[in-house]
């Protein structure tokens, strides 16, 4: 590794946080340097601290420990993520023989300078008991590759000698803090501590020294891993033609979904994140992937995110997706049974006081394809995949110089079901569409974009499809998060299939398809050219059919139902003069909605429609509004409010109707009218 310290940047950080003092500014700076390197920490892992003096709420200067707050990400940390705790009361705790986790948290919170601060790290006492001013802690993949061995401590001693101390594995908390302090007291000249099968600490009198000691110590581990290597994995014999990612992902996603027994027809679904670079493929294609791939996590800190081990499934072959689907469902069921057994025996060991978590895997290894991270959101899926890739790097190095051996399952269980670790995940209430994937066509327009925003706000991952790729991507950026913007011409079957394949590859599948793309052709029906009528049918009928077909194929592969939503327009039931070329295909689409409801209702796939009128959009442009208003002798305002309620209907109103239909799990073949009141357009 190379030091990323730059004097100019360090001083910029000091200036930015001048009011908080030089120590805090430099602590933020080097914490970010560590946190931005995935070889050191990922997604809330690791911690750092500085001992300094600040003014308390009474204006009195107090010696404090500023330590990373639990759950904060080192790569983006701000001073608020380094809660200041009075140091003297923490140091007095070392004289105790025992201290429960709950009391440790209460005592740390009781001594916060700012009561509104986050909980200090679960390793805050370790930082307090070591007297160095700056302390850094990471889960370096290189160091873990050395410690996660049957003789891990001996291997580390070969590398470091007396330069560091060695602490046998203990769960974070009071016991580990005391053991680490005792190890330091035995030789205060050490530059850091190796926590066997956990990670590494470095110390320093200033921020740069602690940081660059970490870099130097990790570099020594990397250099040892580069020597005396053997081929880590022997490749298994795999089918010549593995199935496509876009076909594999929905099958895996459906197999891992969990029925939500609170509501008939509801599912707890997961979003998928795929990885398949050379390192991943070398790992998952290994003949012994079941052994080294399922041995356990590389550091207990990962356990709360990706469970105690991943799931390995059989290689999917092209032409036998049905066989792969059966094999995956059997593998997921077996994984759940194994997890329940693991929980049962370990829960009995701790007195039967724990409540089992869901039994779905969070990482799936697929030989011939790659790996999938699973999460209730795209963000969580990405975290799982990142941790899995870090584990692959660690295990690959461990197998190249020895044999990967993580912690025993009892230790992994204790961390996975440790209340202080579970607290990192937070207890926020999930949004109603969490874990679901929604595809919206015509998303570059007013109604499509409003619908995409509404679904994203309800917790769904959204893919915005439009024939104008730039518009789709711009709207996706406006929504933010993991929103996808993709080109899709619904008049082109290949374009539709490709767009849905990209969504399946990007998120794992599709749960909701909002078929919204359309355009209005005009003309008296007895005089309109046939080519115009055919063009309108291509977009306003066949476009809906192509989208629905593509969505249904994925939904059936998942086996968890789904929802088809169509924009049918009031022209489908209340035709206006000279709008036959537009209204006829829309009327056919209304029948299409009902046909999908009839044909796929027994598979849990619902089909509903919104019948909207007079929405400012690409169909009803400002010029068209002006022309129609003038023709009727009305002001534009009165024209747009020409309904029973006297209210203009907006794209956002249509979006809310689509959202309500998506949430109505026991409604299908419904047509919701959104027009402010037009009796002629009302359905029986």
Automatic annotation (TrEMBL):
Ranges for domain Class II aldolase/adducin N-terminal: 26-225
Gene3D superfamilies the record matches: Class II aldolase/adducin N-terminal domain, NAD(P)-binding Rossmann-like Domain
SMART domains hit by this protein: Aldolase_II
Source organism, top-level taxon: Bacteria
This protein's record includes keyword Oxidoreductase: yes
Coiled coil spans: none
InterPro entries in UniProt: Aldolase_II/adducin_N, Aldolase_II/adducin_N_sf, NAD(P)-bd_dom_sf, SDR_fam
Record GO terms (molecular function): oxidoreductase activity
Keyword entries, A-Z: Oxidoreductase
NCBIfam families per the UniProt record, alphabetical: PRK08324.1-6
Family, similarity comment: Belongs to the short-chain dehydrogenases/reductases (SDR) family.
The protein's name: Rhamnose utilisation protein RhaD, predicted bifunctional aldolase and dehydrogenase
Organism of derivation: Bradyrhizobium erythrophlei
């Amino acid at each position: 590794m190379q030091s990323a310290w730059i004097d100019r940047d360090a001083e910029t950080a000091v200036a930015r946080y001048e009011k908080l003092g030089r120590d805090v500014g430099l602590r933020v700076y080097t914490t970010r340097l560590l946190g931005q390197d995935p070889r050191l920490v990922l997604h809330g892992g690791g911690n750092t601290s500085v001992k300094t003096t600040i003014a308390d709420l009474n204006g009195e200067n107090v010696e404090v420990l500023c330590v990373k707050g639990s759950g904060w990400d080192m790569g983006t940390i701000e001073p608020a993520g380094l809660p200041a705790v009075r140091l003297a009361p923490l140091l007095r705790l070392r004289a105790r023989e025992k201290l429960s986790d709950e009391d440790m948290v209460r005592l740390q919170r009781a001594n916060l300078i700012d009561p509104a601060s986050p909980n200090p790290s679960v390793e805050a006492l370790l930082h307090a008991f070591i007297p160095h001013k700056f302390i850094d802690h990471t889960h370096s993949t290189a160091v873990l590759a050395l410690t996660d061995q049957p003789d891990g401590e001996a291997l580390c001693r070969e590398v470091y000698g007396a330069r560091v101390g060695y602490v046998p594995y203990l769960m974070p908390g009071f016991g580990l803090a005391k053991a680490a302090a005792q190890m330091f007291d035995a030789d205060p000249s050490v530059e850091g501590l190796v926590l066997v099968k956990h990670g590494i600490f470095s110390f320093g009198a200033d921020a740069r020294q602690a940081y660059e000691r970490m870099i130097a110590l990790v570099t020594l581990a990397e250099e040892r891993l580069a020597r005396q290597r053997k081929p880590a994995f022997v490749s298994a014999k795999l089918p010549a033609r593995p199935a496509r990612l876009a076909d594999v992902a929905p099958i895996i996603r459906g197999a891992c979904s969990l029925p939500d027994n609170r509501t008939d027809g509801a599912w707890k679904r997961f979003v998928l994140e795929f990885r398949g670079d050379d390192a991943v493929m070398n790992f998952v294609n290994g003949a012994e992937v079941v052994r080294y791939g399922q041995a356990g996590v590389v550091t207990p800190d990962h356990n709360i995110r990706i469970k105690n081990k991943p799931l390995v499934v059989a290689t999917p072959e092209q032409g036998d997706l049905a066989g792969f689907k059966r094999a995956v469902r059997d593998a997921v069921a077996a994984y759940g049974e194994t997890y329940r057994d693991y929980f049962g025996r370990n829960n009995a060991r701790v007195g039967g006081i724990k409540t089992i978590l869901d039994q779905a895997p969070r990482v799936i290894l697929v030989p011939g394809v790659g790996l999938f991270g699973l999460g209730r959101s795209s963000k969580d899926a990405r975290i799982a995949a990142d941790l899995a890739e870090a584990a692959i790097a660690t295990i690959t190095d461990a197998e190249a110089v020895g044999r990967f051996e993580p912690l025993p399952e009892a230790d992994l269980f204790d961390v996975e079901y440790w209340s202080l670790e579970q607290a990192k995940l937070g207890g926020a209430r999930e949004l109603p569409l969490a874990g679901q994937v929604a595809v919206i066509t015509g998303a570059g327009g007013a109604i499509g974009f409003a619908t995409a925003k509404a679904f994203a706000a309800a917790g769904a991952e959204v893919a915005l499809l439009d024939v104008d790729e730039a518009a789709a991507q711009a709207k996706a950026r406006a929504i933010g998060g993991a929103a996808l913007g993709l080109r899709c011409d619904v008049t082109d079957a290949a374009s539709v299939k490709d767009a849905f394949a990209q969504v399946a590859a990007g998120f794992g599948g599709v749960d909701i398809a909002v078929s919204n793309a359309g355009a209005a052709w005009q003309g008296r029906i007895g005089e309109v050219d046939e080519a115009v009528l055919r063009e309108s049918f291509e977009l306003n009928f066949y476009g809906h059919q192509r989208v629905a077909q593509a969505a249904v194929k994925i939904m059936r592969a998942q086996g968890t139902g789904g929802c088809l939503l169509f924009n049918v327009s009031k022209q489908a039931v209340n035709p206006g003069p000279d709008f036959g070329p537009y209204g006829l295909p829309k009327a056919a689409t209304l029948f299409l909605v009902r046909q999908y409801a009839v044909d796929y209702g027994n598979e849990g796939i619902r089909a509903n429609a919104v019948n909207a009128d007079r929405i400012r959009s690409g169909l009803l442009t400002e010029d068209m509004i002006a022309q129609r208003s003038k023709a009727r002798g009305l002001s534009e305002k009165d024209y747009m409010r020409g309904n029973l309620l006297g209210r203009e209907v907006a794209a956002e109103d249509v979006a809310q109707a689509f959202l309500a239909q998506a949430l109505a799990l026991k409604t299908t073949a419904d047509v919701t009218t959104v027009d402010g009141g037009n009796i002629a357009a009302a359905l029986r």
